[in-house]
Amino acid sequence: MSSSHENKAERPHAVAIDDRWGFVKVGRRIAGFRKSRRGVAATEFALLAPFMIALWLGSSELTQGVAAERKVSLAASTLADLVTQQTNVTPTEMNEIMNATVAIMTPFSTANLAIEIAGVEIDEDGATNVVWSDARGAGSSAPTVGEGYDVPAELIRPESFLVVAQLRYAYTPPTMHTITGSLELSDSFFLRPRQSDTITNFP
Hints:
- The protein is of the alpha+beta class.
- The chain has helices spanning 2-10, 23-35, 40-84, 91-104; strands spanning 88-89, 113-122, 128-136, 160-171, 183-191, 200-201.
- It contains four helices and six strands.
- A hairpin with a 5-residue loop joins strand 2 and strand 3 (128-136).
């Protein structure tokens, strides 16, 4: 019995820590947080989710924008190609060609699509002159008949004829999360007649 009491007597007393300001308690809680791994995955997901969603939306909008740009080029090329296969284009035929051009833009909205077409003569001196023109769509403006037209120098051939087709399209992304406003897409094609030297219109 005496030995047991002696052993208890020899044990050092626990040192009381003055934590009147609560620093020790805060330190212990921080240490506990460092050891705990619960909720780490949820925290990482919460931090990364907005970035991943924005990346996905941006990729989707970029893909749609590229598709719209290709549609604009295809529609402008088709418009010029259909007209150059004619020797004379009546208003009814031009209207059908315009309808076919608009249809190419499906499934994109054509509310912001502007279509312009013109027949341009080039005289012996290389001067250009618009002999007929037509246009369709919001913001479109048919080239003025009787005025010159800006033709690339490499396409100037004295005493020749060109069909000029131009499309402009204001593409608005459906989500509008990463791209604000609209993208202005446009393309132009200059083609020569296939069946004759010139193409007449609106007799």
